[in-house]
Amino acid sequence: MDPFSAEGELLNIHNSFHQGLYQEVIDFDTSKLSPDNAVPAQVLKWRAQIANGQAKSVIDKLAKGNDSPDATAVKAFALYTLGKTTEAQAEAEQLAETSAENATVQIMAGTVLQAAGRPEEALTLLSKHQGNLEAIALIVQIHLQQNRTDLALKEVTAARKWAQDNLLVNIAESWVGLRVGGDKYQQAFYVFEEMAQTPSTSAAKSLIGQAVAEIHLGRLPEAEAALQQAIEKEPENVEAIANSIVLNVLSGKDVSDLTR
Predict the structure, then answer these.
(1) How many whole angstroms separate alpha carbon 75 and alpha carbon 185?
(2) How far apart are alpha carbons 73 and 43 in whole angstroms?
(3) What pLDDT is stored for residue 26 in this prediction?
C-alpha cells in the first residue's frame, strides 16, 4: 500500500508538510510507524526543520555518522539553503550518479540542481521516479519555470488519473491553473482557500496561494487581507512580502515599507 494514499500512515505528516504546517511535521509522533515508513517520516521532519530556518541544526545532526543517501540528500539541500551552493551541487551530482533511484535523492538533489540553474539535469533525475507524486510536482514546477505549460499540464493530467484526491496533485494542478488562466483561476482559488481558511490547515503558504489567485481574479482587497494574514503568521516570509509588493504596485499604493 502506498504510505501516502488515503489509507497510508504517512498521509497526515505528508499533507501537513505540503500545507506549510512545518511545526506540526516536526512534532509529529512517529513512534508507531512501521519500520518501512520511519525513514520517509524522518526526512519530512528534517525538511520541515530546514523550512523553519534550522538548516544548520539539521546539518549538525546529519554530520554525526548518518551517511545514507536520504540523509546526504537532505544535507545537500540544507547546504544550498545556507548559500553553500558549490558544496551542495557537488553532493547532488554524486547522489544523482550513485543513488538516482532513491526517492529522497530525486527530490532533494533535483531541487538543488534546479535551483542552481540546471533544470535539464534535474528533470533527468526526476524522470526516474516510480509514481512519486512529489517528483511529479517538482517536474511541474520546473516546466512552469521553463514556460512549458503544456508539459506541466500533461504531467498533472496523467497524475490525476491515478491519484485523484491527493492534496499534492490538487496543489500542482492549481499551479498550472494559475498559468493557464480563465476559469482555472477560480478553481485554483478554491483549493488554496479551503486550506487557508480552515483553522487546522491554515498556514502562510496556503494564504499566499489564495492571495495570488485573488490577484488574478482582480479581487485586490481580498488578496491584501490574505497576505496580511500570511505576514502575521510569518513576518519574514519572502514570498508573502514579494507578493505584497506586487499587490501594492497594482493598487497604486506606496511600497517603501516593504522594500526596505
Answers:
(1) 36
(2) 9
(3) 97
- DSSP letter for 77, please: H
Residue 84 carries which side chain, given as an amino acid letter? Answer: K
- What is the Rg, in whole angstroms, of the alpha carbon atoms belonging to the chain? 18
CA torsion, ordered 5, 95, 19, 229, to nearest 10 deg: 180
C-alpha cell at 165: 484526491
pTM of the model: 0.91
- d(Cα 185, Cα 234) in Å, to the nearest integer? 25
- DSSP, collapsed to helix, strand or coil, labels residue 119 as helix
Digit-coded pLDDT (tens) for 56-80? 999 999 988 778 999 999 999 999 9
% the chain with pLDDT above 90 = 84
> Which amino acid, 179?
R
Reference 216, options 183, 253, 255, 254; nearest CA is 183
> CA-CA distance, 77 to 62, in Å (whole number)?
12
Count Cβ atoms below 10 Å from residue 71 Cβ, excluding itself. 20
